[in-house]
Amino acid sequence: MEMESMASSIGVSVPVLRFLLCFVATIPVSFFHRLVPGGPAARHLYAAFTGALLSYISFGFSSNLHFFVPMFISYAAMVLYRKRCGIISFLSAMGYLIGCHVYYMSGDAWKEGGIDATGSLMVITLKVISCAINYNDGLLKEEDLRESQKKNRLIKLPSFIEYVGYCMCCGSHFAGPVYEVKDYLDWTERKGIWTKSEKGSPSFLGATLKALLQAVFCMGLYLYLVPYHPLSRFSEPIYKEWGFVQRLSYQYMSGFTARWKYYFIWSISEASIIVSGLGFSGWSNSSPPKAQWDRAKNVDVLGVEFAKSSVELPLVWNIQVSTWLRHYVYDRLVQKGKKPGFFQLLATQAVSAVWHGLYPGYMIFFVQSALMIAGSRAIYRWQQSVPPSMAIVKKAFMLLNFAYTLLVLNASCVGFLVLNLDETLAAYASVYYIGTVVPVIVILLGNIIKPKPARSKARKEA
After folding, report:
1. CA nearest 429: which of 252, 240, 241?
2. Mean pLDDT of the chain
3. Kind of pairing, strands 291-292 and 282-283?
4. Which of 165, 216, 214 is nearest to 40 (CA)?
5. Exposure string for 205-221, b = 16+ CB within 10 A, e = fewer
6. What letter does residue 175 receive in the DSSP assignment?
């Protein structure tokens, strides 16, 4: 009864409230990881046990069974068939996730205020795939590897308890961020940048407090805005009576409102990873040096809202998943000696769409995001072709890219929010498919008008 009254007071269901309480509990759980006695083995056990316990309280016993399936298959592949463990893990883990997406249809539940373990399974899927691929990379010659592969490859197979600890640690499987198994092992064993040095231990207090204040602000703004911009409005008669500008403005505000929910979630997970120490990424070059916590960061709020181009969005939104997609999909589709093109971009966005769920809205949004990024690159090429002497024209192209990103992102993200095919197409049609038409026109113009990069006078004379 207490849970029901508390849930109704903040306008959520009991399952969502239970999840939120466990999600916030990842912060003290992560802090106590620092104090676990008994060395690395005890810390691995603590990470595995607390992660499984929080999952059990949030989603029930079946959640851990779901997590165990891709974890076990991937680990077995690493033990039994190292030469192909990466592709086995990718296909099996993604396949199982897709099966769960189809069975639970979580997007519908999330829209109605429900929740299940599929979101956490999404994070587990990325972790087990990257671990297997990195172990696979340990067989390759160093000269054949990219810098990220050299940094993250595994020469030795992690023990099973190390592996489970990595997958479940700090409750990061709830909402990320995704991190590399090699970083997890170094952190647990206090190696690498986590070795004690003359600079001392990095203080987590300021960074944690900043993340928590950001979380409070984001949730407050979301709760204030969401009653004014419900997704149900898209199917109401009043929406159809509005003019083009008013409908486009509402699409912008619905996307803007929804983003603050994600900002809140990622701010909490950032605080959790920072307070554990795992989020530490090294010292700055300033004097005195300052601790950096980039590994914990999953979103740059101002970077998203004021992105100068669409190309910047993967660098500031769901940062660690974007990094994962670049290292384990995008880069690996590029043939040696060749440059990446639209195919690699589209394939990466397709994987991202399937990973999110088998809803038409996801697929359409991520295909459109590939067009959006390609169009932004065309505008950037025009900007680069302008000589330095024409500073005003250069700034005009910068402003154009900013406006283009703002328009296309917020006209496209409606599909990500409503998910259903009919609702997605109806919302897009209500603004004349502007989120699709504009990028296509820009891409076509970019192929017709192919600018040459501007060269400075000094370079010409040379």
Report:
1. 240
2. 91
3. antiparallel
4. 165
5. eebbeebbebbeebbeb
6. T
DSSP-derived 3-state class of residue 419: coil
Q: Which residues pair with 291 in a beta bridge?
A: 283
Q: List 301's β-bridge partners, or say none.
A: none
Bridge partner residues of 283 (DSSP): 291
| CB proximity list for 96: less than 8 A, separation 6 or greater | 69, 70, 73, 121, 125
Q: 3-state class of 293 per DSSP? A: coil
Cβ(218)–Cβ(301) below 8 Å = yes
Tokens 């298959």 belong to which residue? 73
Residues 6+ apart with CB under 8 A from 396: none
Over residues 141-151, the pLDDT tens digits come to: 888 899 999 99
Q: Model-level pTM?
A: 0.92
Helix or strand run (H / E) with residue 282: strand 282-283
Q: How far apart are CA 272 and CA 51, in angstroms?
A: 13
Cβ contact 177:270 at 8 Å: yes
In sequence order, what DSSP letters do the residues of 52-98 get, joined into one string? HHHHHHHH-HHHHHHHHHHHHHHHHHHHH-GGGHHHHHHHHHHHHHH
Question: Is 356 annotated in the active site?
Answer: yes
User: What does residue 299 show for φ and ψ, rounded to 5 degrees?
Assistant: -155, 145
Selecting among 66, 101, 173, 356, the annotated active-site residue is 356
- Contacts of residue 279, defined as CB under 8 A and 6 or more positions apart, other chains included, come to 204, 207, 270, 273, 293, 294, 295, 296, 297
Other C-beta atoms within 10 Å of 458: how many?
Answer: 7
pLDDT digits 0-9 by tens, 33-79: 999 999 999 999 999 999 999 999 999 999 999 999 999 999 999 99
Q: What is the C-alpha separation between 393 and 431, in angstroms, rounded?
A: 30
Spatial contact of 148 and 325, defined as CB atoms under 8 Å apart:
no
Record the tokens describing residue 311, joined without a space.
């190309």
